[in-house]
C-alpha cells in the first residue's frame, strides 16, 4: 500500500471534521484523520453520513465511526422546484 497523503478539501475524518491526512487501509480503503487526538469523543453532529444526532458508540460507550463512513460524504440532493 502507498503511504499517507495530505487530505484534499471535502475529505473528512471519521469524526466528521475536515481531514488533514489520508491513510490507505486494507479493510476500509482510504480513511481521513483530522489531527485531533480523541476527536471521536466530540464528533460533528448531525453525522455527515447518516444524519444521526447522537454520536456513534459501541455498546460499552466507546466512540466508533459511522457505519456509512466514506472519505467524501455523498452530497445532499438539490431540492426539487415545482
Q: What is the typical, i.e. mean, pLDDT?
A: 91
Relative strand content: 5-15%
Order of helices and strands: EEE
Instruction: Report how far apart the termini are.
Output: 49 Å
Tell me the number of helical segments per DSSP (H or I, 4 or more residues long).
0
Question: Could you explain the architecture of this structure?
Answer:
The chain is mostly beta strands and 82 residues long. Helix content is 0%, strand content 15%. The chain contains no helices and three strands. The chain has strands spanning 5-6, 21-25, 29-33. The chain has a three-stranded antiparallel sheet, with no helix packed on it.
Structure keywords:
single chain, 82 residues, mainly beta, 3-stranded antiparallel β-sheet, 3 strands, globular
Secondary structure layout:
Blueprint: E1 5-6, E2 21-25, E3 29-33
TL;DR?
By secondary structure, the protein is an all-beta fold. Helices cover 0% and strands 15% of the residues.
